[in-house]
Amino acid sequence: DAGVIQSPRHEVTEMGQEVTLRCKPISGHNSLFWYRQTMMRGLELLIYFNNNVPIDDSGMPEDRFSAKMPNASFSTLKIQPSEPRDSAVYFCASSLFGGVYEQYFGPGTRLTVT
Amino acid sequence: DQQVKQNSPSLSVQEGRISILNCDYTNSMFDYFLWYKKYPAEGPTFLISISSIKDKNEDGRFTVFLNKSAKHLSLHIVPSQPGDSAVYFCAASARGGSNYKLTFGKGTLLTVNP
Description:
Chain A is 0% helix and 54% strand. Chain A is built from no helices and eleven strands. In chain A, strand 9 and strand 10 (104-105) form a beta hairpin. The N and C termini of chain A lie far apart (37 Å). In chain B, a hairpin with a 4-residue loop joins strand 7 and strand 8. The N and C termini of chain B lie far apart (38 Å).
C-alpha cells in the first residue's frame, strides 16, 4: 500500500518567492495534518483538515501561509512570500478517526529559503 | 509550555543491551500515548502505543510502560540493535470531546553501537 506521498522532497528558493508543497494522503483516511519541524521548536502542527474541511489553522504562523484540500486525495501548503525563517522540514500526515490515534507521516519536504 | 517532554536529547547504548527512552507529560487529560521512530530524511513512523487504562504494552522487542501517577512513560528496547539507531518521539493525545491533536516531545536520538 502506498503511504503518504509528498512532493517535492527538497525545495530551494529565494526569499520572496512563492513555494507550494503537495501531499497525497493514504486512501481512505479522512484526516490530514501539516507539520513543520525545526531544531528549536520540534514538530509543530500547522493545520488540520477533517473530511477536506480545515478544522484548526491556529498553528499557521502568519498570513503568508495558506493550505487547501480540494479533495480527499490532495492537499497543498503554500508560502507566499517565503522568508529564510521558513526554512524547515514540512511533513504531511493522515489518519482515520481524527488525529488522536496513529497518524501516518509522509517523507517530508526539506525547504531552504535563501 | 511543553506538555510533553523528553529530557534526554540523546542516548547511546551497546548492541544487545536494553535501551530505555523516557517521556514526561503535564496535561492530566492525556489518555493515549504513542512512540514514533524517525530515520534521517524520512518521516516519523508509528512504533507502539498505550492507552491510559493500561500500564504496559508489548510488541516484540519494544515495550512501553505508563505510570499515570507520575505522568511518565518509557520505551524499552530489548535487545537493542544497530538498526534501532534513530530519533524517537513521544506523543500524547486527549481523546475526549473534539480533541484531535497529537502533542509531540522534541525527540531523543538513540545510537546503538555495534
